[in-house]
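As the work plan foresaw, our protein records have gained a structure token line. A representative record is set out beneath this paragraph:
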Amino acid sequence: MANNTSIGVIIGNRDFFPDSLVAACRTEVLSTLEEHGINAILLDTDKTKMGGVESFRDASICAQLFKQHQDTIAGVIVILPNFGDERGIAETLKLANLDVPVLVQAYPDDLDKLDVARRRDAWCGKISVCNNLYQYGIKYSLTSKHVVHPKDPSFSTDLKQFIGVCRVVKGLRNMRIGAIGARPGGFNTVRYSEKILQRHGITVVTTDLSEILGQANRLHHTDPIVKDRLEQIRSYAPTGLTPDEALYQIAKLDVVLNQFMDEHVLDATAIQCWTSLQKNYGCNVCTSMSIMSENMLPSACEVDVTGTLTMYAMQLASGSPSALVDWNNNYAQDDEKCVLFHCGNWAKSFLPDIEISNAPILGTSVGVENTYGALSGRTPAMPLTYGRISTDDVRGVIKAYVGEGELTNDTLDTFGNRAVAQINDLQGLMHYVCRNGFEHHVVMNASNTAGILKEAFGNYLGWEIYEHGKKI
């Protein structure tokens, strides 16, 4: 995912420290941000002394600048080349009222430069700045090292994580999800609260499945838009033994789903993928869902709205597609491994051997001939971030868990979309999932972004969050 993120920058200053520290800091920080493709929004050097923020007047000028860019600023970085003025920094953020993530960085001192002309005292100043932000009720993030130079490799990691946090927070606060059809009757597990989601800025747009199927049935296989979509499907994945009639059904449905998403400006969908679809239309929707997820418009089965919310969150954190999976099977006698499975809608990124096929399990009740459109494929070894967002309607909160592990190449002789996951203390994680009433669906992403998600969910969105494997 291209960065192109705009970040507000506050350079703190204090009058009895040398101005040369501010000038050098400005050059170093701008160079680092440019290396990461970040557009920095900060005071010009002629607006305040060296472009720093020290007084209430400076804070007012900087806040006004940030307000002019409030539609594009995804976060703010506070830079402390010296102790900094804690009030000026807090007042800037208060007056700007951006309500975006804030990262606080402070420069380290050099042991041979602790004289009056060159000492920084930013170690101490950072504590004071954070104390003021806490008093003002402003949420903030910290660098992994208490003090760190902008050219230190760890700051580069901190910066990448912070930008990920900014993407997640901004994206989820204005997310729009399409809920297409009613959840399958046997799936109480995917019930959720629209009202709780809306309170957090997440809008759910609903439609009856019959509306979608009716529009699809009115299309003809000779329609140019259908023929074009069929070619896109053929180029997306090998069709295997899927008959042409089923492919045309898949293509017509895909046309209508994309029109629905465009009409309602949706970021993601959750679809009633069985059994009405197979009985009344004659195919699976998995291929369309896979294509959408691969194109960064995640789609979840069984009208799992908070599942697709999780998919979108992980996509924002990593810049890569997500997949909704079942915590499905034990892996032989290995307590640290399990099988992840779904009948077949994972994004192509997870399936190098992807093929359009059918759904044997579902076919036992609706007829295998009505389940073409499901995907078959095995996910190879890759990094794993897993997690789940859920609305706890009884307590009126949003809760989540996240963690990291790995996907392996262990032998797995079965059908559908499948993978083997290895997770430390997997048994403890399953106890947590069961004890806290989470769904059997979980989301996987080929990344190491659990820390980003925890910071975004817990610190900035105010959700209850558990990160598996972390003691702090």
In short: The longest helix spans residues 244-264. The mean pLDDT is 96.
